User: Which sequence fits this backbone?
């Protein structure tokens, strides 16, 4: 918790990071409150006074963002879609960094055979085609939100592991590690008490980038039609629009989900970069 | 005395920062005669590196020359414009950079880095350039067979020699050297300076050496320029300045010098260099000066003390009387809080 | 150096072998009997068994594995469940289509990104640079399929400049031939996906180059280059940019493999008959030998790409010593 607090404080000090934090906060609030503030049931079909389906209606006072081909309220779907973006993105980012951090720490610190084996495994995962692999896993074990998180985590930890390992390799040679060793601390104690705190900033940057990437990927999976059929996500809205073959008559159906993803992911990128600037001041433009 | 080859005249330079303009150089005037050796001393942050960069015309984008002239062979480079200045760089005024490790591009062969400097100013055939580089290596004492090596293949001392060779490539009449041996051990440092002196005798270039080490200046230079807080506080022939320092800051630097066989311990000057964004009124050294008086809150005049020897201090004419006190450590022991009063900002700008 | 390459080749072989094994069993784990989609239920049991035997599915799993390995060694990827044609035949064409879209657009993205990022860092701090960073980040944050949809909406539907998808006008080449790549029709179809993919992939090299340059510009050797009296252009391209290219250049081979894998999305939007679309079709139709073949191909591309990236680094940076 303390590290999270110092993370936010550090990002807050960078102007672009501050804006991004506010944007992220607004999106998080919408994700939490979405189902309560949504004006309609996102799956309900809207019928007009004449009893006919209100198909592809443009934005109006009733339907802020118009309706879909099936007469569903797009604004409500958008609000419901914020949750899976956070849930899938957040869980995947956390899972990715937990696995990547530990593998990177162990491979970098112990070196030798352990490193060789772990890095070969990482290489295998690096060779996996990212999106196709996730889709095969989804085809194999069913399209659910948890499978998506699982599959994404499996292919995403590899980059974090490599970044962390490189950092540990240089930290391992630092005097404070030698000092800890002379006090008789065990390898694991040195690794997790001395070295791990020093790679945490890097791990946090990794988390931010993993979060950004996971949100985009989740949308892509939804768009390809492999999303959880019981969950409305921004990707699935775009899939419905694309599959309807009439989306080009209804820009209000296509534009909002993409804009939402773009703003949210941009905010996450800016937060990650702001923190990167804090831990590595040379990245700062004068 | 012949006409100066390099003449800095009333130079003011400021850095634009978020909190205001830092007056990095104020009223700096200095001239160097052909073949002469001049040493500039001062603590880090006193503006000596800034001065060299200004002379080379490679200041960071937020720096601006506000006033004054930098004349090379009588031509004002500031007024002449960037392209004329660029042509003088290296062919007229060359520089031995501070850190030999970082000053050489790690991914380019040394020969390529020297030849691009030559080609920027002279249209020589390839063979002539290579022959010249080999000759330069010979001159500075590096095996000429190694001209095509990469920088990381040289030792620290060798790299410094390569940098000297690079600086001499176009036989510049003026050579600037910015702490050229800080990263090296004392023995190598000594060798480098010895060959530099020898080269100077052979080639006759003028040398402007910047360092925080007064000892190096005494050993290598005929004239001393002492800088503090972006200003020249004392300048004069080395022998005169050492025999009779006329500014308390020079006295302080002299005291800080370790002396072989002397019974006295080196004394350091307490406090830090001034904040250049909001410098103290009057004499910039006053907050740290053990001899400061009320009148030191006004700008001190530049007093002439002898031929070519002048100092910027209200009390420089009483210095004969003050010098014995300056040699006692207790004179410099002051309340640190008082010394730091005028400088709450520790930001260093170089 | 030689022993380093040998060792890396050995590692690469192990990785590849592990990948092949992993994928073989992964695909056998997939639910649903692939033969069920191939074979008409009207067929009797005997015929079905005969079909299964044709695909080698009647033998024990471990035997199937070794047969698979043996076939792979002869570059035989097996038969498609659906069409009974050799997988390689199907993949070959699709791979060409994908590479024709991805390669030029990645090269364009990297060239523009490298120069753009370098110039952004060189003229840093201005308002224009700030807006470019914002724009690039926003573009990078948008899903590429959405950018594709918008592009179709604007340039195909509203302006009617480009076709909405496909590689050539449907029906013009009933049998795909090499000749179709030489037509203006092909270029006309290529333009929009190429543009979208380039624009999207531009952001990464652009921002990476910019941040690398920002730290390179502060290096002493850049200042020394200027002190030597080099022209600003020489300092920019010969020193600052030359050195900043290192990290960027080494990402290219790996990113290439990844973007072939990521082509799934852009190919879906533009109905571009490439490897990605083939994989999606294969998955939805349970034609696993095809998916497996495509998978393997992309894996090989990525693994070889990583190897090339490491060697490239050594070529570009003389400080790297291979051990």
Assistant:
């Amino acid at each position: 918790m303390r590290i999270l607090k110092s993370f936010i404080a550090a990002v807050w000090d960078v102007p672009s990071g501050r804006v991004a934090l506010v944007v992220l906060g607004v999106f998080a609030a919408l994700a939490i409150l979405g189902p309560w503030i949504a004006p309609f049931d996102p799956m309900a079909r809207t019928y007009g006074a004449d009893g006919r389906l209100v198909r592809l209606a443009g934005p109006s006072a009733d339907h802020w963002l118009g309706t879909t081909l099936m007469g569903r309220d797009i604004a409500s779907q958008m609000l419901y879609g914020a949750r899976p973006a956070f849930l899938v993105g957040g869980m995947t980012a956390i899972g990715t960094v937990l696995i990547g951090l530990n593998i990177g720490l162990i491979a970098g610190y112990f070196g030798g055979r352990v490193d060789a084996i772990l890095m070969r495994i990482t290489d295998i995962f690096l060779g996996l085609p990212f999106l196709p692999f996730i889709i095969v896993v989804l085809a194999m074990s069913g399209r659910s939100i948890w499978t998506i998180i699982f599959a994404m985590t499996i292919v995403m930890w590899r980059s974090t592991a490599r970044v962390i390992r490189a950092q540990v390799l240089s930290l391992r040679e630092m005097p404070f590690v030698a000092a800890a060793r002379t006090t008789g601390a065990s390898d694991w104690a040195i690794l997790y008490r001395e070295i791990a705190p020093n790679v945490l900033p890097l791990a946090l940057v990794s988390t931010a980038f993993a979060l950004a990437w996971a949100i985009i990927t989740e949308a892509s999976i939804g768009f390809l039609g492999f999303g959880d059929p019981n969950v409305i996500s921004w990707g699935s809205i775009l899939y419905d629009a694309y599959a309807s073959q009439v989306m080009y008559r209804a820009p209000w159906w296509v534009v909002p989900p993409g804009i939402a993803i773009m703003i949210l992911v941009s905010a996450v990128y800016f937060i990650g970069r702001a923190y990167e600037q804090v831990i590595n001041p040379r990245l700062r433009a004068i | 005395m012949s006409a100066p080859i390099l003449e800095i005249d009333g130079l003011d330079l400021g850095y634009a920062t978020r909190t205001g303009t830092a007056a990095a150089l104020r009223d700096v005037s200095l001239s160097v005669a052909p073949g002469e050796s001049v040493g500039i001393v001062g603590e880090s942050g006193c503006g000596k590196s800034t001065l060299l960069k200004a002379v080379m015309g490679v200041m960071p984008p937020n720096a601006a020359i506000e006033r004054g002239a930098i004349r090379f062979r009588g031509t004002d480079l500031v007024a002449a414009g960037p392209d004329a200045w660029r042509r003088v760089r290296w062919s007229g005024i060359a520089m031995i950079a501070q850190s030999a490790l970082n000053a050489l591009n790690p991914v380019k062969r040394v020969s390529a880095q020297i030849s691009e400097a030559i080609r920027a100013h002279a249209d020589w055939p390839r063979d002539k350039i290579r022959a010249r580089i080999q000759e330069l290596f010979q001159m500075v004492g590096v095996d000429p067979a190694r001209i095509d090596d990469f920088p990381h293949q040289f030792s620290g001392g060798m790299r410094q020699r390569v940098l000297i060779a690079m600086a001499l490539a176009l036989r510049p009449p003026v050579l600037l050297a910015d702490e050229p041996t800080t990263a090296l051990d004392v023995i190598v440092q000594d060798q480098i300076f010895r060959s530099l002196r020898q080269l100077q005798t052979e080639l006759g270039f003028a040398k402007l050496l910047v360092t925080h080490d007064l000892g190096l200046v005494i050993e290598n230079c005929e004239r001393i320029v002492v800088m503090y807080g972006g200003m020249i506080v004392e300048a004069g022939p080395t022998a005169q300045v050492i025999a009779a320092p006329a500014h308390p800051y020079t006295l302080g630097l002299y005291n800080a010098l370790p002396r072989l066989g002397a019974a006295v311990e080196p004394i350091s000057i307490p406090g830090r260099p001034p904040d250049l964004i909001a410098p103290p009124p009057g004499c910039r050294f006053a907050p740290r000066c053990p001899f400061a008086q009320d009148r030191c809150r006004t700008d001190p005049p530049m007093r002439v003390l002898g031929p070519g020897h002048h100092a910027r201090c209200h009390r420089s004419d009483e210095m004969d009387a003050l010098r014995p006190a300056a040699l006692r450590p207790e004179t410099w022991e002051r309340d640190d809080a008082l010394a730091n009063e005028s400088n709450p900002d520790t930001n260093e700008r170089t | 150096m030689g022993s380093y390459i040998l060792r890396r080749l050995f590692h690469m072989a192990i990785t590849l072998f592990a990948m092949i094994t992993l994928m073989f069993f992964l695909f056998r784990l997939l639910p649903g009997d692939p033969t069920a989609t191939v074979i008409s239920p009207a067929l009797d049991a005997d015929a079905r068994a005969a079909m299964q035997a044709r695909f080698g599915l009647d033998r024990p799993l471990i035997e199937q594995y070794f047969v698979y390995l043996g076939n792979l060694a002869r570059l035989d990827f097996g038969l498609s469940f659906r069409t009974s044609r050799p997988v390689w035949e199907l993949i070959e064409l699709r791979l060409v289509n994908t590479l024709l879209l991805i390669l030029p657009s990645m090269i364009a993205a990297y060239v523009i990104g490298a120069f753009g990022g370098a110039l952004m860092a060189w003229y840093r701090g201005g308002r224009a640079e700030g807006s470019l960073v914002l724009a690039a980040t926003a573009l990078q944050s948008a899903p590429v399929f959405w950018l594709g949809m918008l592009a179709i909406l604007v340039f195909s539907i509203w302006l009617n400049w480009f076709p909405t998808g496909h590689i050539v006008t449907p029906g013009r080449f009933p049998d795909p031939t090499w000749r179709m790549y030489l037509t203006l029709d092909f270029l006309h179809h290529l333009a929009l996906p190429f543009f979208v993919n380039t624009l999207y992939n531009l952001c990464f090299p652009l921002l990476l180059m910019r941040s690398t340059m920002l730290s390179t510009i502060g290096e002493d050797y850049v200042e020394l280059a200027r002190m030597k009296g080099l022209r600003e252009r020489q300092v920019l391209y010969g020193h600052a940019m030359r050195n900043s290219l290192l990290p960027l250049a080494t990402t290219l081979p790996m990113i290439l493999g990844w973007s072939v894998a990521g082509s799934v999305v852009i190919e879906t939007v533009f109905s571009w008959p490439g490897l990605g679309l083939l994989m999606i079709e294969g998955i939805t139709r349970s034609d696993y030998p095809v998916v497996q073949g495509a998978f393997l191909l992309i894996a090989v591309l990525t693994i070889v790409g990583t190897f090339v990236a490491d060697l490239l680094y050594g070529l570009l940076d003389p400080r790297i010593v291979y051990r």
Notes: Chain A is about 75% helix and 0% strand.
